[in-house]
Fold each of these.
Amino acid sequence: MTITAADWQALWLTLKLAGLTTLLLFVIGVPLAWQLSQWQSRWRHGIEVLITLPLVLPPTVLGFYLLLLFSPNFAPGQWLSQLFGGPLVFSFTGLVFASVIYSLPFMVQPLLAAFHANGQRLTHAAAALGIPPWVALWKVLLPASRAAIVSACALTFAHTLGEFGVVLMIGGAIPGETQVVSIALYQHVETMEYGAAHRLALMLMGLTTVLLLVARWLGYVLAPRSSNAAPARPVVGVLG
Amino acid sequence: MVRRLSLLLPALLVAMALPVNADNCTLRVAVAASFRPALEQVLPEFGRRHACPVQLSSGSSGVLYQQIAHRAPFDLFLSADRERPELLEKQGGVLGNSRQTYALGLLALWHPKSESNIEQLMQTWPDTIVLADPRVAPFGNAARQVLEGLGLWEKKQTQLARAHNAGQAYLMLDSGNAQLGFVAASQMRAAGRTNFWLLPQHWYHPIEQQLVIPIQSRRPQKAQALADYLRSPEVQAQLRRLGYGVLPAADRGREGGRGL
């Protein structure tokens, strides 16, 4: 079982990317899902559909449009370049940016489902007690949605681990910067180094399996228990 | 009614899963994505001479090789390299002496300025240089040889962005995400671009694109006819206009004895 230094580097980079993406998406996803669950407007459906789009769009197509978005030939690319202090293409920052878009539905959907289920009831109860909405979110709704949060984070993390098409288009396979496991794996297969490919794939699958099992267990442990309700089952299951 | 449906549904599913029965005339060609546009240019004439339709499947040479090695039903394989047809031949997966070079790829440098000298431009270039991944793509491998020849391979390591193949390298440059990079001359020709250098051919090993007739080919004669047509002087002249090189006179078995 020899794993090359380049493979370790790719593995570490992938974990870093998935971790950072999950963290950022949590910070973006919670207020977004909450806002959507509170919102009564017809626009809500449009926004929810928009958030689902990265699920539908083939990753290479998403990557292609990101390549155009990052291009310094157009205004958005120039603006992004200024904002992030350099071009996003061929950079780790660019991969994080892309992963946030790519994994957005995996964070928002489970949270939305949980907030829809409990949101109205709990926030109304909190409002009746004179608790301001943001405090209600933080102190009441989030603790009540623990299982969904664990699911959302686990799915986001796992989905980003396996990200391939998007990275292929915008990454440039730079070791230590954009050469993630999926790319390294594909290169092994393309160059017919099947042994190396099997080892890396095995590691990735082992890692993901352990991660999802831990998430399931956490979801189970954290699920709210009341005398009259069965523990909510975490929805960690299907991987994108 | 429900019972009848319950019988009908599996039957339908089975029917859908059956392979579409290609008539015993269609020629199935697996072609490297980079060569597909050129092939589509020269196919109509072949179609006029032979009654049967030609069905193209394109993808990366590596993926097509995998499929053909696992007996995917292709009648002819046009690879973008020499290595994979050779491998198929070694594995006994091709018909007798069917391995032949059908095109010669030419390496081009996409560059922003027309007046400068290549070597100097490469030396002083401060930004990203795009190339296809040398480990995977023939054009990337040739680009690597050029950089090594100029003594820049090690020096420019941190500036290199590796695209998966020549097509993607072109896209990175075309979208403005990089200004300098190695592409195929055929891509530049196809796009009607003139802002490129044709790199001297002695700077890199010839990018020989070879074809084979897989052992599972159901129409080997027809496949051979298409192979001969591609190597005919008229098509070769057309390919030269499309940015491909002149075929070497002795294009086979340069290493003497041929495999199995």
Note: The radius of gyration of chain A is 20 Å.
Amino acid sequence: MSASETAIARPASRRLARSKERMERLMFLVPAGVYLVALTIFPFVYSVYLSLHQAKLTKLHRMRFIGFDNYAELFTDSLFLDACRNIAVLTVSSITVEILIGFFAAKVFFSLRETRVGAVLRSASIVPMMITPICIGLIFSYIFNPNLGIANFLLGEIGISPLGWFSDPSLALATVILINSWQWTPFMMLLMLAGLMSIPAEQYEAAEIEGAKWYHIAAWIEIPAIRGIVLVGIILRVIDNLRLFDIVYVTTRGGPGSSTEIVTFFAYKQDFQYFQVGYGSAAAVVILFASVIITAITVKYLRSAEDD
Amino acid sequence: MTRRTRSTILPLIGALIITLIFVAPMVWMFLASFKTVSGIFSIPPQWVPDFTYTDNYVTMLKDDWPYLLNSVIVTVGATILCVVLALPAAFGLTNFRFRGRNFLADWILSTRMMPPIAAGVPLYMVFNGFGMLDSIWALIIVYAGFNIPFAVWVAMSFFRRVPRELIEAAQLEGCSWTQTFLKVALPVSKSGIATVATFVFIFAWNELLMALFLTTRAAKTFPVVISSYVTTGNTFWELVAAASVIQAIPPIIFTLIMQRHIVSGLTMGAVKD
């Protein structure tokens, strides 16, 4: 092989090597990417498409384009509006309860952080958030059974007349909120505990020297220190609440009346009980946009809070 | 009483009350699983059941073990598929420099916001077209896919912790990216991989919505079966209790072993604990 030939051959082989490396790199990203497009982008685009049609699951070959009529109908459908209101109430109150009780619990476990018993109790109390939601729903259906459940029995022991936890329209949503917050308070507790652990001990010592009371410490040291972490928790909990389904499916099925109707359950019923997939898809698209908008706002707020 | 004991005694009482609140409902269901139908709803409540009474478990498992098996197969299959797809992607996103890298990472994260209900009808139709309704394969595919965003994000957070020098050294030694990934990055990230895999396992194990409409008989998963014990006329509480206890075993084991990783896991690495 002459010198001139190698000079020409080398860049070519290098180019070959580089394109081979590019191929190799692509193979890391392409499978997951294609998979995600197929499983999330495609269904989403198709849902939007369906939502613009009058479509019945059993007669999909006879779809009719109706533009935004489904959306127009949704926002005059009192059941859907109830579902929106319920999910808003449920999300805000659950997260509030989770933060308040979670903070208290985090403080308690923070003061026991170096004890063995504290660690054991903490691991036991975070189990609810990993338990299958369907089981959580059933556990509480059992406990809140109107005539024979332990909750009403215990209320009776202290002289309170039995409550219709799930059957009383004015109480049913509160019961669902109670169950939902019961399951997720441990999550907020863990987040805040991680935040408290990140506070340097000197800050506490300095505050103690200056004679700060517990509420001074909470307001000036602890709450600022955990604010960022709690915001992350709030975003995640909002997204999760908007897609809440299992607990309602197993406890109240949206009733009594529309008192515990929520948007995912509404969409589910339209799709798979009435087979009105165009209408159901419109409801699902509304949830998706709500999640995106709420997340965007919260993330923006989070960023500006971090810049302070 | 010393100052030290006094300063822990109040928090200890608080911790006991908190733990009781979060554990007692589960314990109550556990106790119910050993009661007869009349014992489950006796007034006053039967506080301590006869633990040798295991008929509920026997009856429940005799009828429903195929569905329990479905759940195990679907969950294990989905976990493996998800991890196999997500780990290389996470490695690529943390180690390759290319245009649009951040955009790609953000897009992957954003797909987690999609409510599963929005994917329900389209996926139902696709699987219907392929004749795959009521097949455990459909569930494996869906559960793996739904957990990819989460798995990629958590995996990125631990691949970022692999020392840069280690990756560079492997490259200088002439390792291809595949070799670097398999021989360097994976072995040093073992505990992170275990975290991702167990989370995906639990998410798939708990899933109800997709299983409700993608399965009818043969491929039903355990959560679907449990929910079917609740009928408008009657609820078979003795079976519900036994099934709930069995369904809860993997999550409980997982929580006790992995509790240190739960915060960073559930927040997808956004918060370090």
Note: Chain B has a mean pLDDT of 91.
Amino acid sequence: MPRTASMLFASVVCLAVAMIFVVVGRGNTRDDSRSRRVGADQRDGADQIASNAPTAVAAEASADQNTAANTAANTGGSRHPIIIRKPTGPPRIELAGMDPQGRTGSVACSTCHAVRKPNSENVSAATLDEFHQGMTFNHGKIACYACHNPDDADTLRLADGQSIAYENVMTLCSQCHSKQAESFAHGAHGGMNGHWDLTRGPQMKNNCIDCHDPHSPTYPRMVVGFKPKDRFNAPLSHHHDHQGAESHDDH
Amino acid sequence: MTTTENARKPSLPIVENFTRRAAVKGGFATLGAAAFVAAVSPLRQAAEDKSAAEFMQQHYTELSPQQKADVIARLEAEAKENYGADVTIADDRPIPGTKFVYAINLSVCNGNGKCVEACHKENNHDRDTNQSYIRVLEMPKGTMDMEKGNTTYTGAVPQDDKFYLPVQCQQCDEPPCVDVCPVKATWKEEDGIVVVDYNWCIGCRYCEAACPYHARRFNWKKPEVPADEVNPDQSYLSNRIRPVGVVEKCTYCLHRTRRGKLPACLEACPTGARVFGNILDKDSNIRWILENKRVYILKEELGTKPAFFYYFD
């Protein structure tokens, strides 16, 4: 019995000594990190009163610095561009047939349209007697030659009669869709990639016709693919607890 | 004579029986000891899972640059050991003069869920549960009440009588999740992002309960990510693979945004509904939207002051 007691006593003493060592060790590291910790605490405090005036003022001050830096970057020319994707050029028509060597080819719009008389009254594919017949057209009540150039099939035409290249199709769209064009200019319409901070890298933006088929511009429906499996995703019929009294009637 | 007779008097053999009291004591002592062993047995497991360095690690804000470097080296080695992936864990700090803000165009969002998938991949979420920081709610038109939404919709979107409301961490200026943390493992940084030190989190899940937007997630088990799918571009406070038993949340992809890039969910959005930027920059897209569009915030009445806006064309 005394043997057990003395072993117990010895272990208690060992534990106490170990605790003292740990406390002393931590105390030392704490002294080392004292100044750093004070800094961190101050920052913490500032975070917690984030909505209060002093921080807001500080934030505004730093914002001023930031915009100053931006303008400096502007003048310095180190600001990266916003790159808007452009169509590669006028569309080419793939030929259905093959030549004796088995090659296919593509031709420009003007290959046919240069020798055909434009019908400026045509408004849909249904009234065409040859070519383009399968095309869906659902873009208001406008006619083909509202956008396409009857005098030069490889270009488009603005409302004022000015010819414009396919690459600059956004100018054409913006004539009617000025709201969208304005939103686009401010990043509120159309997707983007790359950098939000143009001082660090460029930004790439979509073109109107990347997302909208110009002949049927309604954004197409999509099918949902990816679904997380979590407890909030259980089907609605499974949780009756917050649906009110009527859902309990069937129990 | 009589004494010797007494001594030699035959008697029953005496067995040193415990008294009843001692037996009961002994029984309870055994029970107690067993209960104690059972209670501390997870600690033995923990000792196997956890290195001494990890156990002794300080809070993120108290780490010296040297300690931080050591911790990050250890985490990179652990990622190699546990997931077979060569990852780089950076320590991205806020850019001075930035306050990140997000906006979503609800007129355009069609609920296709590409953002959910992009978040899943970018942030090294568990492949088994398809976890993601974003939930898209299919909402009946005419209400902004999140409880009326449904996240389990499938098939073709958008439905004509519905609109779609993507919900993720709103990076509140008055974050209830930060207030309730008993160990200060989560806090709000200078650029407005609410972060978690996954190595300091004790997994009590108070923050998950406190968040009115259901934005926090708990790691119920060790995340499974195949080596070739691990995103090696990581940050300590962001998308490094989280340990089991801790809470995690959207960080506006701070491993991207603090390097000037756009968040992964924004880049993945095929409809262009998402806008991200620095609200302190007067010329930013986000400022134009706040000044020119019809802007809503979710659960405004709670006073959480979200840094996340919803707008309509």
Note: Chain B is about 30% helix and 15% strand.
Amino acid sequence: MKRESIFHLMIALVAITLGSRSVSAQNSGLLGRVEIDGSSTVYPISEAAASGFTRAFPKVKVNVGVSGTGGGFKRFTVGQTDISDASRPIKATEFEAAKDAGVDFFELPVAYDGLTLVVHKGNNWVDHLTIDEIKKIFTSSGAAKTWAEVRQGWPNNPIQIFAPGTDSGTFDYFKEVVAGDDGSLRSDMSTSEDDNVLVTGVSGSPNAIGFFGVAYYEENKDKLKSVAIVNPELKEPVLPTAATIEKGTYAPFSRPLFIYINARSFRRPEVRQFVAYYLKNAADLATQTGYVPLPKSVYAEAMNHCRQGKTGTHYLTKDMEKRSGAVTEIYTTETLVN
Amino acid sequence: MSRSPTTNEEDIEARLKNAEPASNRSRMQKDRAFRWLCIAIATVSVLVLVALLTSIVVQGVPVISWTLLSGTPEPEPSEAGMFPALMGTIWICSLCALITLPIGVATAVLLEEFKPRTKVAAWSYSLIQLNISNLAGVPSVVYGILGLTAFVSMFSLFGNATQPGAAVWEWGATYYDQFSNLGSDPFLMMSDEVDERYFLVPVENRTNPPTVPTEGMMAYENSVAGLVPVEVHVADAMGDLPTDPEVLATSIDSAAVPGRISEKAWYYFQLPLGRGVLAGALTLMLVILPVIIISTQEALRAVPSSLRDGALGIGATPWQVVWNVTLPSAIPGIMTGSILAMSRAIGETAPILIIAGIVYIRTSPQHLMDSYTVMPLQIYNWTSRPQDEFHSLAAGGIVILLGILLSFNAVAVLIRHRMQKPLS
């Protein structure tokens, strides 16, 4: 115990000396502050970016908040924050709020998250699920109460469902993919804002099913089993892995994560430097925090957007209709709506 | 209340007469059974507490290290610490105690010791009393929302409905326009050849239009020695650039738009208060004020009236009675109530989440309006991460939080101990 604490102290001392060396060597000239708020899914990436950035620019204060995607946009669209973390693209209502307040923004994708469906480790009947079967389990119109109602031959056990809280971007995204804009998910699910509660829930019951971001699955592989989803186009089951998410074959449950940058704040040297750092290191930051990097071309395109001042969103049409599809197809200058 | 003591005694006598004569043995048995029941209940609750504490200590103590105490939150669990949250908690709680104790005790003294004589005053006193006892039961989230409108944006009284909490009137801030030199723009790929340098141009008023770069303009550079004056050059980024690296390093793009930044002194103050430490402390004040008032009232009531009568009898004014007799003898009771209230304030998350909302912050608060985070928020943030290492960090954080709580309480107990004097 004692030896260990001395060891910790030594590590701390080494860290302090290393830290101070980088302070004197680096750009201590840049001052200012960057205000970030938004999605808890994107938070770990932004935290990693902030931590790395302030090592290089120690006099810049970077504050990251977690208000959820919707809460973050509420502050962003009135100009209270410089950057908004988002686990889904901006909605038409939020876009119009930003317009009314005169807030122009850059939309930059930073990573992929594979929304993972998980079952109990001892569940030996679920090998893969089709979208229709998922609809049966999760939507209020499907309402399968037992596994036997989902597919013939499965046991006649009641299904227990664990889902993220209704305020999260994850819930919004899942609802949109599975139930569509008009449908609704079942109301008799156990929900929690804390994904670790969902992990505990699913790993505690052999008849349980749940969903959350891929990072939580990766950390709990020993307790959970991920479910392969039948890709609607390829017609074959695909498991969520870094490779399938990046290739886009894990569809339709891989979603891009975004940061939105206030164009007025972007003029400030410290915000420019921070965004540049974020984009240059986004692939590493994503891997480090359990997410999947986007193709390099997307980051390059994002860099271009910033350099040429191309503000606006790619995920709404001129008539404020939602646009969906793969990031590589949607994230181009042609689809930009301002 | 209306009964006189004599009727009371008669009442008891009558009841004793009517009571069924029980054998001595069964009476003793009942007594013993009741005692065992009490002991059992107490044991169960103490056991639960011990189990909880042990599990937290077993999980938390091994991860407690200097890094956890002095470090900043990092993505790598082994390097992560909670210093900003620790300082935030200390700031918030000290401020909250400084503001709440005088107000709470003064209110209780007014309500208890200066009883109204007129009807209108009595009516308003009872209204206040009713409000206070009801407020003690309001969930703290509600206070968070109240604090957001009352302190952060001050009901938009200062006319900024579009940007709640943005400073309208302020004192102690210096504004600069920050330019970067041509070499440091990360979106022009030439950063490797030219040193990155940043120049500050002081701005008189924060609402001034952005400074337009002019040749020979005096600017400052922020270096280790403080602000150093530099002469800057203006170049057109699209045209020919200066070839002398010295000149290039101090050149600004003629079309550059500066970023407005501010340096805030330690005495910085703004209206409305914004999402700062002061707004947070005031919101926590709302949460614990009713508790402090009520417990102080109880403590004052417990002071025997013979003491007051004696002091009044030798010619003391009501104020002298309160200051020299009642308050000193009530302080142990007041401290007990305050300890409970402050413990609540330290662990309170919901109102702080609404007022501050920030979880990643690298510095401790520098002034009363600075943004901050507190330990419960940091712990909550760590528990919701996927990695197990963060969960044990959270356990370590809880142990530290408990430590702070105990040391706050120790100070209060010490004061209580010093003040305790026999009343007779």
Note: The beta strands of chain B are 169-180, 198-203, 218-223, 226-231, 233-235, 251-253, 259-271, 358-360.
